[in-house]
Amino acid sequence: MTLEVKLKAGFFKTKHYYLSIGHRQIFLTPHDADNEEFIIDNNELISIRFFKKSCQTGELEIVAQSWVCTLDFAIRSNLDDVRQAFAKEFGNKFISQ
After folding, report:
1. What is the dihedral of CA 8, 10, 11, 15, to 10 degrees?
2. Of 18, 20, 40, 85, whose CB count within 10 A is highest?
3. Can you tell me the distance from the alpha carbon of 44 to that of 54, in angstroms, rounded to the nearest whole number?
4. In CATH terms, is domain 2-96 a member of 3.40.50.2000?
5. What are the sequence ranges of the domains in the chain?
6. Digitized pLDDT (tens) for each residue of the chain, 97 residues in all
7. What is the pTM (predicted TM-score) of this model?
8. How many CB atoms lie within 10 A of CB 13?
């Protein structure tokens, strides 16, 4: 599963990324070559919180040992599929609200 997301990078500033998960890792690949790529391994991961804003928009907060990031979905997504994929991949580290 690959989703387009906006990484909150400051007050009123976002960066476009592609979010994918697999092999108990989270991959954030930049849309623009100028931005940094992030790979968050399950060992570094503390929690993932999913906030559903409406039936097709939501937000993810990823808390790792070295940093915290907040992601908004760039395009409308099937949030039930997103929620199920994260719950399956990360188990009790995933919290849906």
Report:
1. -50
2. 40
3. 30
4. no
5. 2-96
6. 789 999 998 888 999 999 999 999 999 999 988 889 999 999 999 999 999 887 777 899 999 999 999 999 877 778 888 889 999 999 999 999 8
7. 0.88
8. 9
